Amino acid sequence: MNIPGYDDWKLAGPDERHEIGNADGETCNRVPEPDEDAPRGYRPKPCEGVMERPRVNGKPVDNFVTCDTCGEIGD
Ligand SMILES: [Zn+2]
After folding, report:
1. pLDDT value at residue 41
2. Most exposed of 24, 30, 32, 40 (fewest Cβ within 10 Å)?
3. Structural domain includes residue 6
4. How far does the centroid of ligand 1 lie from the alpha carbon of residue 31, in Å?
């Protein structure tokens, strides 16, 4: 098979997500779970929050980051 763009399409599997922030200062980009009350065809917007390290007593905790908007924890 040699269809232009086929490999790109094939590599972008259904599990492929747009990039989400997992480092300090990155944009969160997480899409919230679909709301069952949402209208049909509603597409939730990716979170615009910023990933940041929580601080404990003024010191950044360095083993994880959280979103300042939705509170999701990054890797
Ligand atoms: Zn977020």
Report:
1. 83
2. 40
3. no
4. 8
Give the chain's domain count: 1
Q: Decide: pTM greater than 0.70.
A: no
Q: Supply the DSSP string of the chain, one letter for each residue.
A: ---TTHHHHHHS-TT-------STT-B--PPPPPPTTSPTT--PPPP--BEE--EETTEE--S--EETTT--B--
Portion of the chain with pLDDT greater than 90, in percent:
33
CA of 4 to the centre of ligand 1 (A): 36
- Asked if residue 3 is part of any domain, the answer here is no
CA of 8 to the centre of ligand 1 (A): 28
Note residues around ion ligand 1 (Cβ under 5 angstroms). Answer: 28, 30, 47, 49, 67, 69-70
**Structural domain contains residue 14:** no
Q: What is the pLDDT of residue 37?
A: 86
